[in-house]
Design brief:
Layout (H helix, E strand, L loop, with lengths): L8 E13 L5 E12 L11 E8 L11 E12 L7 E2 L5 E14 L5 E7 L17 E7 L15 E2 L7 E2 L3 E5 L2 E2 L5 E7 L40 E3 L5 E5 L4 E13 L2 E15 L3 E2 L7 E4 L4 E3 L13 E4 L14 E3 L4 E9 L7 E9 L3 E2 L2 E4 L6 E6 L2 E2 L4 E7 L9 E2 L5 E3 L4 E11 L4 E10 L6 E2 L3 E5 L4 E2 L2 E2 L3 E5 L4 E2 L7 E2 L5 E9 L2 E12 L4 E3 L3 E4 L4 E2 L2 E3 L3 E4 L14 E2 L5 E9 L2 E12 L3 E3 L4 E3 L5 E2 L3 E3 L2 E5 L13 E2 L5 E8 L8 E9 L11 E4 L3 E3 L7 E5 L13 E3 L4 E8 L5 E11 L4 E3 L3 E2 L11 E3 L1 E10 L5 E5 L9 E2 L2 E2 L3 E11 L4 E10 L2
Parallel strand pairs: 10-17, 19-24, 35-42, 44-50, 52-58, 59-64, 66-73
Antiparallel strand pairs: 1-2, 1-17, 2-6, 3-4, 3-7, 4-6, 5-18, 7-8, 8-17, 9-12, 11-15, 13-16, 14-15, 16-17, 20-22, 21-23, 23-24, 25-28, 26-27, 27-31, 29-30, 29-32, 32-33, 34-37, 36-40, 38-41, 39-40, 41-42, 43-46, 45-48, 47-49, 49-50, 51-54, 53-56, 55-57, 57-58, 60-62, 61-63, 63-64, 65-67, ...
Length: about 850
């Protein structure tokens, strides 16, 4: 069976206290204390009643007699946050279990001193800043001073860390954690983050036999963390006070180890580590004001203020003080402010002013615009000094601080702090150089750029291959740091210049040598020599008028010039595009130095075939249009052809169903290979959907409001009995049946017709309901016929069981004898109908009807 071990270790430390001389000569007695921090729910094998601590001589790493020693448990207490900050939302409980082991030991006085070591398995699991983050052990050490460290009449005890670790830390929020210690001997103390110690048997095994301090391994940190930055780059420790502060990382458990060093008479006499696991809460939140100690506005007089603490919904108000006595502050979260003059200003941020959860921060702002940082580099070879020069300009004050990092991964001393240092790289490659510069007015900047360190100096040639005429002189060109030497010296002036003159009579290779303090590179230039320029031009050609033609000059010329420049896109290139207004002769001159040659080409122009498809026109829906072509050519074509009566006719009839562009294409045989093209648009008006209204029935004397539609222009006929015949909604009063024809039309003459039949009853307003219907016969639908009825309220049909089988309030709708698509049986059905007549009087009727199949 496998033993499951709880993992609860959260930290620990060892300290010592001098209590007097030992019982033997040349010995001292010390009380050594181990404080072990566990989770509050620690249980089982980690609640050791004894702890074994090894004591090792620093001189030879050997254990002293009797080591390791058993230390008894003298204290077991729980430490909790008793009064949580009321301004923290959703606080999680913070609790540690502190177990203390103490014993008295006599040690011989040793020149170098001793180291106390305690080791154990079982740190807590899922540590956010370690990789791997499980099955990790822990080691705690304390350096006990030797007699060489302090005078014989003096003694020493360890500084004591106060128990201030029960602080609730919220993720991504500012925090402070006091890791300061108190020294009983009033020694000076300094603090640093250091790599935490691991221990063998991290996966289990309880207390271990301690090993010498030189054999203890460090934990492995995850990406983004290390021993000096255990909580990331945003968290630091004050080396003088031990105050840990910054912006917390994301939620989780983090290992950190702080070393406190004791200093007396300018010498370090002892040190010991406190190893601790900090829990960052991912649930809680708090409002905080945070500013950097100093800011600088060195670009202009305007500065953007912002809270360095992450945004929080708990921040209700912002109050900024800009430090300018003549100007007010701001209540914006991130205001801009423009200062009237240079100076150092005291700025302040208050959040939630006059609130229980208020917080504030102060800083200094240096406003001295006109700061332009920069640097340049001279030299390029490794193993030779490369000069770095500060080129920073400052309008106010003077540059007084420089920090260079030359980016040499092979060296630990690749830094400098003077204005213009030099550095010698051991290997070639791309080096990322970083430069930080600042002024006595508080302006500072950090620049970074890659430089290439080569095994040879860089030679930049103006060209590598060129052509000259035998009567010419040519200037060669090269750039680089060092001394140039050219060869061969044949027909050359200034062989040691960067830009010598050469006048070879035959083609020659010239080689350049560059010496940069013994770092040498070579390169070469080919100079080809000719006695005359070879040149030919494009053959004569014919183009369509208004088209372009690309001209070509063939040969070894280096420079070109064409005549008739106004008709060319560029008269000084080898292959320009010509766009002549008529037949034109072009001459090209090609040159190599002082040698020239000419050639000619004629471009003949022929007009495009003339094509005129006629004017655009508009037709009504379902109407036709006649196209009219005018042309000069020997053949033509219309397209598209699917809506043309005869596309081979120059004047075809078009019958488009929608607006269509017809294209006329005309060809000829007089030289222009391209057709003349023209378009005509036949725009088709939208279809007119004329609707005079549904046929209806009225009673004598009932006014009827017609509702025609389809176009803005309406005409009714005959016009008798109508109050108007030229509107969409005239009113009619009839004594007899009548049929009206409505014409809907447009200003262009497009029109459509519809009719409405009006049946006139001699009776009063009523709703007629048939007494029988045959769904499969001549009367397939059972529906009411309202006469003189303004509104049909409902028509309902019930079967003999009282079940509603149909209902409507829409005139013209009726029952087809089915329910849910299922045929109903023949028989008697009850109906009810209700409506309002045209005078506003209600009408209700009921009866029966026979369904016959």
């Amino acid at each position: 069976m496998q033993t499951i071990l709880a993992r609860h270790i959260k930290g620990g430390e060892i300290s010592y206290e001098y209590v007097g001389p030992g019982s033997q000569a040349n010995t001292d007695r010390y009380i050594i204390t181990l404080r072990l921090f566990l989770e509050c729910n620690a249980s089982g094998q980690q609640l050791d009643e004894q702890a074994n601590i090894g004591i090792f001589r620093n001189s030879d790493q050997q254990s002293i007699a009797g080591s390791p020693f058993n230390f008894p448990l003298v204290s077991d207490e729980f430490i909790n946050i008793r009064q949580p900050n009321p301004c923290i939302v959703n606080p999680s409980p913070v609790c540690y279990r502190l177990r203390t082991y103490v014993s008295s030991i006599e040690l011989p006085r040793d020149p170098i001193g001793y180291t106390a070591v305690f080791q154990r398995c079982c740190r807590i699991e899922n540590l956010s800043n370690l990789s791997p983050n499980n099955n990790i052990g822990s080691s705690y050490t304390c350096n006990i001073h030797g007699i060489n460290a302090i005078p014989l009449n003096e003694h020493n005890s360890s500084p004591s860390f106060a128990i201030k670790d029960t602080v609730l830390i919220c993720q991504n929020r500012p925090f402070e954690l006091d890791f300061g210690a108190v020294d009983p001997d009033r020694d000076s103390l300094s603090y640093d983050f250091v790599d935490a110690y691991n221990a063998p048997g991290g996966g289990g095994g309880g207390i271990l036999n301690p090993v010498p301090p030189g054999q203890i391994n460090f934990v492995n940190y995850a990406s983004g963390f290390n021993g000096r930055e255990p909580l990331g780059k945003a968290v630091t420790i004050n080396p003088v006070t031990g105050l840990i502060a910054g912006i917390a990382p994301k939620g989780g458990d983090y290992v950190m180890s702080v070393i406190v060093r004791e200093w007396r008479h300018g010498k370090m006499i002892s040190d010991h580590r406190k190893d601790f696991n900090i829990k960052v809460d991912e649930r809680c939140d708090l409002a905080a004001a945070l500013l950097k100690p100093t800011y600088s506005s060195c670009d202009d007089f305007t500065f953007n203020f912002r809270n360095e603490a992450p945004s929080s919904s708990l921040i209700k108000t912002y109050t900024w003080e800009f430090g300018d006595k003549n100007r007010t502050g701001s209540t914006l979260a991130s205001p801009d402010f423009t200062y009237a003059d240079t100076g150092v200003y005291n700025i302040k941020l208050i959040i939630n002013k006059n609130d229980q959860c208020s917080d504030s921060a102060n800083a200094k702002l240096f406003v001295f615009p006109g700061f332009s940082p920069g640097f340049d580099v001279t030299g390029s070879c490794y193993q030779n000094p490369i000069l770095f020069r500060d080129t920073t300009k400052a309008k106010y004050g003077s540059v007084n601080s420089w920090s260079w990092d030359f980016g040499d991964a092979s060296s630990a001393t690749d830094t400098n702090n003077i204005a213009s240092p030099s550095y010698k790289y051991a290997v070639a490659g791309i080096k990322q150089v970083s430069f930080r510069v600042s002024t006595d007015k508080g302006c500072e900047a950090e620049l970074s750029r890659p430089i290439e360190v080569r095994d040879k100096p860089l030679v930049n040639l103006a060209f590598r291959d060129t052509l000259i005429c035998s009567i010419d002189t040519l200037e060669l060109g090269a750039r680089g740091a060092g001394i140039f030497t050219w060869s061969p010296a044949y027909n050359m002036i200034n062989v040691g210049a960067t830009n010598p003159l050469v006048y070879p009579k035959t083609s020659t290779w010239y080689r350049v040598h560059l010496n940069d303090n013994g770092c040498i590179n070579t390169d070469s230039v080919r100079v080809r020599v000719v006695d005359a320029v070879t040149l030919s031009a494009t053959p004569d050609t014919t183009i369509c008028l208004t088209d372009g033609a690309q001209l070509h000059a063939f040969g070894d010329g280096l420079k070109f010039s064409w005549t008739q420049a106004s008709t060319l896109n560029n008269a000084f290139i080898r292959n320009p595009v010509a766009k002549p207004g008529g037949t034109t002769n072009y001459q090209v001159t090609a040159g190599i130095g002082k040698c020239f040659a000419t050639a000619n080409v004629t471009v003949r122009t022929v007009p495009y075939p003339f094509a005129d498809a006629g004017k655009d026109t508009t037709v009504c829906f379902d109407d036709t249009a006649t196209l009219h072509a005018t042309m000069i050519g020997n053949r033509f074509a219309w397209s598209p052809v699917n809506t043309l009566g005869n596309s081979t006719n120059p004047d075809p009839i078009a019958f488009p169903r929608r607006s269509t562009v017809y294209t006329l294409t005309v060809y000829d045989n007089i030289g222009c290979p391209k057709p003349g093209v023209d378009d005509v648009l036949v725009k088709v008006k939208d279809k007119i959907n004329a609707f005079a209204g549904n046929d209806t029935s009225i009673v004598v004397g009932q006014p009827l409001h017609l509702t025609g539609s389809g176009s803005e222009l309406i005409e009714w006929s005959p016009s008798i009995y109508l109050d108007r015949d030229d509107i969409a909604g005239p009113v009619v009063q009839l004594n007899e049946n009548m049929t009206y024809v409505m014409r809907a039309f447009t200003e262009e003459g497009c029109s459509a017709l519809d009719t409405i039949n009006i049946k006139v009853f001699k009776s009063g307003p009523d709703i007629f309901v048939p007494n029988a219907f045959t769904p499969t016969g001549r009367n397939p639908v059972f529906r009411p016929i309202p006469v003189g009825i303004k509104q049909l309220l409902y028509f309902r049909v019930f079967n003999r069981y009282g079940q509603l089988v149909f209902e409507t309030s829409e005139v013209g709708r009726g029952w087809n004898g089915t329910i849910g698509g299922k045929l109903q049986q023949s028989g008697t059905y009850v109906w009810m109908v209700s409506g309002t007549d045209y005078t506003g009087k209600p009408l209700v009727k009921r009866g029966t009807a026979m369904l016959i199949r």
